[in-house]
Amino acid sequence: MIQTQQLQFAYGEGQPLVFPDVAVPHGGLVLLSGLSGSGKSTWLALLAALVKPQQGALTVAGQDLRALSGRSADAWRARNIGFLPQKLYLSAALTVQHNLELAYWAAGLPVDRPRVRQVLAQLGVAQWAQRLASQLSGGQAQRVALARAVLMQPRLILADEPTASLDDAAAQGAVQMLLSAAKEHSATLVIATHDARVAQALVACTAVAPILLHLSPAWPTSALSPATGRLQV
Amino acid sequence: MSTLAYAWRYVWARPMAALLNVLLLSLGLGSMTFLLLVSHHVERAFDRDLAGIDVVVGAKGSPMQLILSGVLHLDVPPGNVPMAAVNALKANPLVAQVIPISLGDNLQGYRIVGTSLSYLSHYQATLAQGRVWDAPMQVVLGATVARTLGLQLGQKFAGAHGLGAGGHAHGDHAFTVVGVLAPHGGVIDRLVITDSASVWKVHEDAHALDDQDRLALEDEREVTMALVRYTSPLAAVTFPRWVNTTTEMQAAAPALEVTRLLHMLGLGTDVLRAFAGMLLFTAGLSVFIALWNAVRERRGDLALLRMLGAPASRIGLLLMTEALWLALVSALCGLALGQAFVLGLGWVLGLESQLMATGLLWPPTLWVVPVLAVLVALGAALLPVWQAYQSDVLQLLQTKE
User: Which residue of A lies nearest to B308 if distances are taken between CA atoms?
Assistant: First the structure.
């Protein structure tokens, strides 16, 4: 699902970030960790075809991302990437339903109302469909944001610090929710986090061994071994 | 929802800012509407009253005064000319029609105009009641005069000397109302129209010492001016010069004089127009600031839309549409404001029958208002849209709470 080789990206003239090679199978689970500045967001952006690598090979969902640019990258992203940002960015001016429909507008596709209802129901927030996003609690808002992420049945879900502002119980719930959403849509899941509770929750919630990808600012180019069960966070 | 619907929601998600912008834009556009409508009314009134009159022949003096006094009935005339000289004009082969105009008296401020029946047919006036005159001292009232003074058919009244209210009353000479004209929309609504002979009769009887004197006065009868229609447009080249050089009278072309007048008025409206332009510029600035702030505040939301697969162009379109919504709402408010102001002004100044036509008007020049609204809005949106294009999605993803 995700294959990278000798992946490099530099901001302007700066020191390039060099990413370890990974090969993530379909339906796999990646736990992306690292200090801030280590390139977590950049790696996510590369996977989402928001930026192009300066060097190396990057294939996501069978697509060579170096071959995509501009509108074709936007269209590919709309269909293949589900994104759950740390700050949820639900539009306060819109209802929950319209926030989801906004994804169709962004992708330039006709709205599929039954699908919107279905996803909201799956995540247990169907009853809030007509509420303004600003009226939701934090947990409800995260469910709605996840609903938006999986709406287009993406093949890859990117979650950025999904537990950052949650208490322990909620954090475990959030991870569980992500796992089941990914399973439901048979999507590959990447969780970028520096929160140790995510790792603990993964151990508690799933038998699938996550691929651990730890980034450090001066990471040498080397392959990463699959998880051994011992988590280094 | 469509781009239009989303843009509408986003505009009104910040109701105070949206209202303020609509208010500012509406004020600018409203003043623009007002100016356009007023100048349209004035020009239309002139066109209507001057239609078909190729040249006005009267006493020497200011040509503009001649037009203002004899055609638009706003000013006093420069003097009188002998009836004989006016009759002589009819012999000129370039002249198709001569309508004499005699001024001098008024009825409570409304001018009594001595003329011939061709004056009524020239303005295509129709009677609402009664008939036209068939003898001196019979009058036909303009619609406004009849309405304001409440005079009925058969009623008698005395004119007063002069062109404004309050002159010496010609008490012994009573006019009789024989007809009332239907509302026309032009200057004749404000006139009391009678035969030229009525005016002579009033003044000759007032001034003559005895019957012999009266006969002498009859020979020297005068009119104030004559409205002349040409047989051919080519006459405009030679006829005025002929009048000015070979007679004691002057010829004034209404088209020329009104152009001159409008040009002079134009200096005043230019100042007002500049003022309205300033207002619009300020409004545009305010829209710009609001959109700029909106884009800054919504950087994350916009970046998320990019993340959801929206091309930068679609986000630019969304912001443009928001500006266009503001423009549309403001244009509607501005147009309504301007129209209301014109109607209100007409009502307050009692100008309905003089310059302002009743009811709403949409002169073609008024299209400037919505076009201007759209241009201002799009101009104001340009930089914020460009900013949205430039926004670095990646950097926003890194922005933590």
Answer: A78
pTM value is 0.73
Q: Are B34 and B343 contacting, i.e. CB atoms less than 8 angstroms apart?
A: no
Say how far apart CA A216 and CA A226 lie, in whole Å: 17
| Touching A: B residues 295-314, CB under 8 Å | 300-301, 303-311, 314
- Residue B391: domain span: 3-46+270-400
Query: pLDDT (tens digit, 9 = 90+) per residue, B288-306?
Result: 888 888 788 888 888 888 8
Is the Cβ of A104 closer than 8 Å to some Cβ of chain B?
no
Q: Identify residue B152 by its one-letter amino acid code.
A: Q
**Counting every residue, how long is chain A?**
233
- Of the listed ranges B42-51, B138-147, B239-248, the least confidently predicted one is B42-51
The verdict on B73 and B193 lying in the same domain is yes
Q: Which residues of A touch B303 (CB under 8 A)?
A: 89
Has residue B265 been placed in a domain?
A: no
The answer, yes or no, to whether residue B265 has pLDDT greater than 50, is yes
Whether B142 and B243 share a structural domain: yes
Regarding whether B171 and B211 lie in a shared domain, the answer is yes
Q: Is the CB of B304 less than 8 angstroms away from the CB of A81?
A: no
Same domain, B86 and B42: no
Kindly indicate whether the ipTM for this predicted assembly is greater than 0.85, answering yes or no. Answer: no
% of chain B at pLDDT higher than 70: 89
The b/e string for B157-185 (b: 16+ C-beta within 10 A; e otherwise) is bebbebbeeeeeebeebebebbbbbebbb
Residue B61 φ/ψ region, left for φ over 0, alpha for ψ in the -120 to 50 degree band, beta for the rest: left
pLDDT at B332 over 90: yes
**Structural domain contains residue B194:** yes
Of the candidates A189, A187, A186, which has an alpha carbon nearest to the alpha carbon of residue A175? Answer: A189
Model confidence pLDDT, tens digit, residues B135-174: 888 999 998 888 888 888 888 888 888 776 666 666 667 8
Arithmetic mean of pLDDT over chain B: 84
CA B10 to each of CA A82, A116, B331, B376: distance values in angstroms, whole numbers, following the listed order = 24, 21, 19, 19
Interface with A, mutate which of B397, B398, B399, B400 (most A CBs under 10 A): B397
- Compute the distance between CA of residue B393 and CA of residue B396 in angstroms, rounded to an integer: 5
Contact A178, A29 (CB under 8 A): no
For residue B219, tell me if it sits in a domain: yes
